[in-house]
Amino acid sequence: MDRENKILVVDPNQEMLHLYEQNLNEIGYEVVPSRSGSDALAMFEVRRPELVILDACLSTSDGLSTCAALRQRADEKELSILVVTPQEDNTSVIQAFAAGADDFITKPVHWGVLFQRMRHLLRGVRAHRQELQNQVAPFCEETARHSLVERILAQEPWIDIWADCAFRLQPWIYNSQFMKF
Q: What is the rounded distance in angstroms from the CA atom of residue 54 to the CA atom of residue 52?
């Protein structure tokens, strides 16, 4: 499942969700909207975004407990969480970091600041994903080579051709100047 450019936005206010969707879609992000913490957790499991923008003041549940639950499902290398807090509420900011948030932004949302913070957070998540892909790539290439050999050998005519070539070339290989030791 492709996670790139997928952002889960959790806000109890439908108008704010629409603004997030409109502004983030304009710059190439797919927005997965959610109005509650429980819905956000369910959407996270299904959609697996790379970033969550989470309002700290959810109406049905505490946004910070949702933050903590999201962090239990994915560590900071796999998922970034940006918490939106009320203006000048340092207590919420401290609690957000304690719950597992990676960064915060205050209300009212300044879109330019939000975009820069998102870019910064996504850079870290994507760098980690690239590092994992680089570590796994040699194993995938080796598996692909083995799979190709197995497919070739599974075809009867190829086995016959290969065996015939090996039989015909055997005297040449052993008598060749290049192969003498």
A: 6
Rounded to whole angstroms, the Cα distance separating 114 from 136 reads: 33
109, 83 Cβ separation under 8 angstroms: no
Which of helix, strand or coil describes residue 107?
A: coil
Residue 13 dihedral angles phi and psi, to the nearest 5°:
-90, 115
Q: Which residues lie below 8 Å from residue 56, measured CB to CB, with a gap of 6+?
A: 63, 64, 67, 83, 84, 85, 86, 92, 95, 96
Contacts of residue 34, defined as CB under 8 A and 6 or more positions apart, other chains included, come to: 8, 9, 10, 11, 40, 43
Check whether the bond before 108 is cis (ω within 30° of 0): yes
Residue positions counted in the chain? 181
Q: What is the pLDDT of residues 121-176, one digit of tens each?
A: 988 777 766 676 666 556 655 565 555 555 555 555 545 555 555 555 555 554 55
Residue 102 and residue 172: Cα distance in Å, rounded? 66
| Per-state percent for the chain, helix, strand, coil, to nearest 5 | 60, 15, 25
Indicate if the pLDDT at residue 21 is higher than 70.
Answer: yes
Give residue-wise pLDDT tens across range 64-81. 899 999 999 887 678 899
The helix (run of H) or strand (run of E) holding residue 7 is: strand 6-10
